[in-house]
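Technical annex, item 7. During the second reporting period the consortium partners agreed on a shared format for inverse folding records so that results from different sites could be compared directly. Each record opens with the tokenized structure and is followed by the designed sequence. A conforming record, contributed by the partner at site C, is shown below for reference.
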């Protein structure tokens, strides 16, 4: 569910209607777009960056970028489809900047999330490990499809790749996720085995 600004004069307009209003200088339309997509942009940035600080920076930079498109912005796809490569590229830039920051003693800054961000239950940790094991191009397609709900065509547009490539990557990612994991010594056998 998208978060709406309760002070907005807009009540359930389409993205196209908001963009048209924003192109005329209507600040409330820009606000409505921000409130509609901020959680999605932040979540995507956090997925790429792995920490709240960088994700917050990417959120701000994404909407500054979008703001710079007005007036005259023409949306030819879903806004998520338009914003995905922006968030991905800004996240990559944030990660690169973070990895170049040197501490006073000359060592590199640790890019792992802070301990509070690492606290997850075992199932979530296992899922994140499975996703992390996928190649980036497979992980992107999988998450855009199932976490963000984009259609295959929207994913192709977001990633600037052919539709057939999206289908192939999605199929490969799902096949890899279906492959049973090696069982650790002493762990119980799954039901039906043994």
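Designed sequence (site C submission):
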């Amino acid at each position: 569910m998208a978060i709406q600004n309760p002070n907005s004069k807009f009540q359930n307009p389409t993205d196209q209607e908001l963009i048209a209003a924003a192109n005329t200088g209507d600040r409330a339309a820009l606000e409505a777009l921000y409130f509609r997509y901020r959680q999605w942009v932040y979540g995507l940035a956090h997925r790429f960056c792995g920490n709240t600080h960088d994700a917050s920076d990417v959120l701000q930079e994404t909407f500054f970028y979008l703001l710079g498109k007005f007036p005259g912005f023409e949306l030819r796809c879903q806004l998520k489809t338009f914003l995905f490569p922006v968030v991905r590229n800004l996240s990559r830039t944030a990660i690169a900047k973070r990895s170049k920051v040197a501490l006073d003693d000359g060592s590199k800054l640790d890019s792992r999330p802070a301990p509070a961000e690492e606290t997850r239950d075992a199932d979530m940790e296992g899922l994140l490990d499975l996703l992390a094991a996928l190649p980036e191009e497979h992980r992107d397609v999988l998450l855009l499809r199932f976490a963000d709900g984009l259609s295959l065509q929207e994913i192709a547009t977001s990633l600037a790749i052919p539709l057939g490539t999206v289908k192939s990557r999605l199929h490969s990612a799902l096949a890899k996720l279906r492959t049973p994991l090696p069982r650790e010594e002493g762990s119980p056998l799954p039901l039906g085995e043994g």
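Residues 110-120 have pLDDT under 50 and may be disordered. The two ends are 44 Å apart (CA to CA). All partners now use this format for quarterly exchanges.
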